[in-house]
Amino acid sequence: MDYETKVYPGSGGYGKFNRLVVLFSWFPTFAVMLNLFCDVFYTLIPELYHCKPDPRLLPSCFQFSNYSKQGYLNITIPWLNGSRRSHCQLFKYPRNVSVFNENLPKQKVSCTRGWEYTHSAGLNRNYVTEWDLVCGDYWKVPLQHICFMAGWIFGYVLLGTLCDWVGRRRGFLISVSLSSVLGVALCIANNPVVFLLLRLAQGAMLAGVLLASYISRLEVCDPPNRLMVTMIGGFFGVGAELLLPVLVVLCRDWKILQAVATLPLILLLSYWCCESVFPESPRWLLSTSQLLQAKRSLRMFSSGNALCLRDENQPGERLLADMDSVYGDNCQPEFHTVLELRQTRVVWRNCLILSFTLFIGTGIQYCFKRNLPSFTTHFYYTYFLRVLTRALSCLFLCFTVNRFGRRSILLLSAIITGLSSLLLLALTLCPGNAQFALRQRGHAHSHTVGNLPHVFILQHC
User: Fold this and answer.
1) Dihedral sign of CA atoms 105, 108, 114, 119 in order
2) 94-106: per-residue pLDDT in tens?
3) What is the pTM of this model?
4) Disulfide-capable partner of 212 in 71, 172, 219, 396 (CB 3.0 to 4.6 Å)?
């Protein structure tokens, strides 16, 4: 039974109730993006830091009262090329000397008492400064990024399958519940290994929240409106990015920020009690042949859309009767997996092409983003520049895709992104402003390349 032409219009189409469900499906996007981009501040390395001076490395005759704080640092911490103090080394002087002077023979040793940090942006205390993940332990910072994104990918696969087996609503509620618990547990993490493992698990659950809300939003929306509701969801993510620096300034500690970021996830648990704001998708119920639940869900949607839907009454007088005749009385649920896409060669081929396009767009986007700080040392300038670029990319899609088509905009954005990359490689001696303009253009269009596969997919759901 064709859902788009018979069932969906018979339940009221894209009416008031469907719009309400779409509205409440945007709030999970805000909560997920708030937790996702906290990682930027959790792993931000302070611009200035150095070893804590260790009196045990100084001669026994050293008189602290004879030196100012800066003078004390100058004789205990080496300078690198006369520009800045070393991040990872201290001077060690001979212990048994009678008179101290700066010309004594000395050797460089690693930090022995930890580090002192100067906080010019971001949190006063974060994942890096909490456990001194600099110098020899710096490798734990990119490892945290890798684990979090690995959890994100694993969550898409695992919880995407779960949404196909138990439904969109149950998959969403399971993901929200576990991500809330993991968010609270992160607030009391007492070592970097525990933090890393919890972020890995939370990344998987956050992916489940985002995926379940995204699929539900598409399935209650008609094809002409899917692009706009998806782009508005993207703006909710941009709003979370814009709000995050404000929360950072107010919180100043990563544990407090984590608690604040977890609060929206906890509020989403209210969806347990309010089925009307996040109901089970009738489209999924019909596709899995769950006829009784599908009828109940369609009655909820039709009543919410002020449409009477019974077997013998208009305007959907024949809809439920037709469903009975199509599915039969002894209909048994049939669940599906993503591997069944291989039986449809065209869909499988398109999925592979779009996945590769998404991979390329996201990868090159990361490269452009990583090179932006080379033009300025001001953290918040580059942060808001990236947010603005993402917002402009969403606006570009809103105003061009329906007018010029998905394929043409994808090709245009891919060409501009590629040309920007090639010109940056070829014109290494061009002025800094020209390089900056090329990077910004490439960054914006790589966002578009990364977003357009989602647009292609939602049009064929």
Assistant:
1) positive
2) 777 776 666 777 7
3) 0.86
4) 172
